[in-house]
Design a protein that fits this description.
Two copies of one chain form a homodimer. The first copy, chain A, has three helices and eight strands. With about 150 residues, chain A is an alpha+beta fold. Chain A has a single domain, classed as 2,3-Dihydroxybiphenyl 1,2-Dioxygenase, domain 1. Chain A has an eight-stranded mixed sheet with strand order 2-3-4-1-5-8-7-6. In chain A, strand 3 and strand 4 form a beta hairpin. The longest helix of chain A is centred in the first third of the chain and has 12 residues. The radius of gyration of chain A is 15 Å and the shape is globular. At the A-B interface, strand 1, helix 1, strand 3 and strand 5 of A face strand 1, helix 1, strand 3 and strand 5 of B.
Chain lengths: ~150, ~150
């Protein structure tokens, strides 16, 4: 079912500051920046590695305002891991399979994720307390990431 | 520097219950179980994928007692992501490089990690609030994981 750990997402107060930090201490490179109004975040993807199942990234998330999900997360927990995303071949199929096993889906249908992906979130309480995202890469990227 | 996202570690109250959950909902398989007295945890590695840079896993951690680091984490935050680990070719070298950039190391020298690996932790406050582990796989596993 899972083809890769797609990304680990970190909530932060200042995206540019954290990009500079991660580039400097871990020698990572930003491969995409995006503003996702729907999710209320400004984000960057830092490339870790490519594999047969697609790429792995660190995602940095800065909330667009305090009353967004990531803004509320920061106010409550401070900076740190916000969610973890796993690559799947087909997000709709994976939602059906995992949902059919009693895991609550936070999305009724896939929505727009980073770099043209289709994504859906699972309820953290049904998955060991980890906010979990399923990611289907943009079709043209499937299997051509390295 | 980073060859892979080695694992995402989840702190839990009941290891066997969570293993059964993750096997059932995500079709994952346990490839190693271990008791690490030094770190005060009972743990399991669930295999996600192999790549040129080594394997990626979900690690489940149950504290051996409430007064261990993971026991205290659970009491304070509840179940969820405890740390994230990145694979490096040489953990001592990576500690030197990252430490030289002003990141505090929680370990003075590498210690024993899962499946015969050598590991070291970085101070979360210096790394965006994410407790971060560096992992050098057991020598015989390097590049032979798939």
């Amino acid at each position: 079912m899972f083809m890769r750990i797609d990304h680990v997402a970190i909530a932060c107060h200042d995206l540019e500051e954290k990009i500079a930090l991660f580039e400097r201490i871990f020698e990572l490179t930003v491969v995409a920046r995006e503003i996702n109004e729907e999710q209320g975040v400004k984000e960057a993807m830092l490339h870790v590695v490519d594999g047969d199942g697609g790429g792995s990234y660190i995602q940095l998330l800065e909330p667009l305002s305090p009353d967004t999900p990531v803004g509320k997360f920061l106010a409550k927990r401070g900076e740190g891991v916000h969610h973890v995303a796993f690559g799947v071949p087909d997000v709709t199929e994976a939602m059906g399979e995992i949902g059919g096993r009693g895991v609550r889906l936070l999305d009724e249908k896939p929505r727009h994720g980073s770099m043209g992906s289709s994504i859906a979130f699972l309820h953290p309480k049904d998955v060991g307390g980890m906010l979990t995202e399923l990611v289907q890469a943009r079709p043209t990227d499937q299997g051509h990431n390295h």
